[in-house]
Design goal:
single chain, 428 residues, mainly alpha, two-stranded antiparallel sheet, 69% helix
């Protein structure tokens, strides 16, 4: 069973399924939430939204498999779980109503190609992203996700019962079960603490009447995504806007890959791994757009899960990718998983996202507490986290700048850290 803690090695299918399922449950709602938000902003129908959710699950599974095992130079051969990126939500909610969902598709096709080129030539430009810059980005990713976890804990943004007593109870039950299982379970079973918490939380939600099973009544048995369901529109303004966010997404992927190798493999990622992860991000994002869906990227919450469990076996995580693909092909599976209440998910993600923050702080520490590193970390984090909590500060800038930076602390931290890393002298 120790093979689950190594990248390679045989693990029986029945033993690997729970660990793979744990990864799916950790990212499932976050994988479909961006689709639902953007579809709503663009005025897509319920049928169109359901189709995009199905495609999102399939493309996440395909992307994860390519990251795990790689095709040519595409993929890092690392346990990176992929999903629909939250990073693009704000810019899509600007582009979509302005130029239509078809403009989003066109921009993602071009933007994905742009990021894949960044991946192929990563050895040239990633030199400006020093370890302290990556550490700041990872820390910012962790902090940016804390509000996501808190929103889930309270029932999910926009929920009619947001912050209700029932949601507090469900989130607390799930969190306590995760902690207790981790304390009292023995051996490798400890690593299933998140799955245990989700199962207990789901059962509690069933008894409390918080699980809506009505979506299971009118679903087809098998359904496959369509090729080019939307005719892409190549609007220059949309392409430029989305391409800039792809640069931020690429930095997040570098941060996620670095965080994963640092916390789980205890080493820095190789240039080949960075290049492969970025190239996979870009190419699969373009493929996703050709199927009518949004860009895909590495999922920080699953990096947190890896940091908690240390289960990094590629075959084990591939079972999770298989479950995602099945959930997309067989809508009933996805429909059941989609009934997982947000509060239950929040009870687990709060702990996982905290792990990402700690991973980032550990990375800052490993860079060394020189005056230069302290200044870069302190200023980039204070500007990124501070300014984006007061988005009105950006009102003097054009709309597109506000869209990219006003509420995206990762983008601001990245830009601040890059600038300071370039201008501050290496020597005293």
């Amino acid at each position: 069973m120790d093979n689950i803690y190594t990248l390679d090695g045989k693990v029986p299918l029945l033993k690997s399924i729970p660990f793979g399922l744990q990864h799916v449950l950790a990212m499932f709602v976050a994988n479909i939430a961006p689709v639902m938000i953007v579809a709503g902003a663009c005025g897509l129908s319920t049928k169109e939204t359901a189709s995009l959710i199905q495609t999102a699950m399939i493309i996440a599974g395909i992307g994860t498999l390519i990251q795990l095992f790689a095709v040519w130079k595409i993929g890092a051969k690392l346990p990176i779980v992929m999903g629909i990126s939250f990073t693009f939500v704000s810019v899509f909610c600007y582009v979509g109503p302005q130029w239509g969902y078809e403009a989003i598709i066109g921009a993602v096709i071009v933007g994905g190609i742009f990021e894949s080129l960044l991946g192929f030539f990563a050895k040239y430009w990633t030199k400006i992203i020093s370890p302290i810059v990556s550490a700041c980005v990872v820390t910012a990713i962790g902090f940016s996700l804390l509000s996501v976890g808190a929103n889930s804990f309270a029932g999910g943004s926009g929920a009619s019962d947001f912050g209700s007593g029932q949601n507090w109870i469900l989130g607390s039950i799930t969190l306590v079960c995760c902690i207790c299982f981790n304390i009292f379970a023995k051996g490798h079973l400890k690593q299933l603490s998140v799955l245990f918490g989700l199962v207990v939380g789901y059962i509690a939600a069933l008894f409390m009447g918080k699980v809506d099973l009505s979506s299971l009544e009118s679903i087809s048995f098998i359904s496959l995504p369509q090729i080019m369901p939307y005719k892409p529109v190549f609007n220059l303004s949309a392409i430029v806007s989305v391409a800039m966010i792809f640069l931020v997404s690429a930095t997040e992927t570098i941060g996620d890959t670095t965080a994963m190798t640092n916390t789980v493999l205890n080493r820095e990622p190789s240039k080949k791994e960075i290049s492969g992860s970025l190239t996979c991000d870009g190419i699969i994002s373009s493929l996703s757009a050709c199927l009518g869906c949004m860009p895909i990227t590495s999922f920080s919450q699953n990096v947190g899960l890896l940091a908690m469990t240390k289960v990094i076996n590629r075959v084990t995580i591939a079972t999770g990718a298989g479950i995602l693909i099945l959930a997309g092909i067989f809508p009933a599976i996805g429909a059941v998983l989609a009934t997982l209440p947000e509060a239950v998910l929040g009870g687990c993600t709060i702990m996982m996202f905290g792990n990402i923050v700690i991973s980032g702080l550990r990375m800052i520490g490993s860079c060394g507490y020189t005056q230069r590193n302290i200044t870069i970390a302190a200023l980039s984090l204070s500007i990124g986290l501070g300014f984006t909590q007061v988005p009105e500060m950006f009102n003097i800038f054009p709309d597109i700048i506000q869209t990219i930076f006003a509420e995206n602390c990762v983008a601001v931290v990245f830009l601040s850290a890059i600038i300071m890393n370039l201008v501050m002298p290496k020597e005293k």
